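re: that chain from earlier
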Amino acid sequence: MRTPAPDPALLEELIAVRMPFGKYQGRRLIHLPEAYLLWFSRRGFPGGKLGQQMRLVYELKQCGAEQVLAPLVRER
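^ sequence. v structure.
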């Protein structure tokens, strides 16, 4: 069974979103350190869309797939 391709619009939005608070305020989610995201994974991601996006970035970093987004990040 094939894994469905990710929604391009979702990925475009994901690389544009910036951290709205904390130590890394203003930094794109995709550029957050993995250790910071790991901390959130243990303590709990924020609620709502931001938490979902942070969780997705964490999962991408965990499996080494963040390089897939590198071309999109460079275009911005």
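The radius of gyration is 12 Å.
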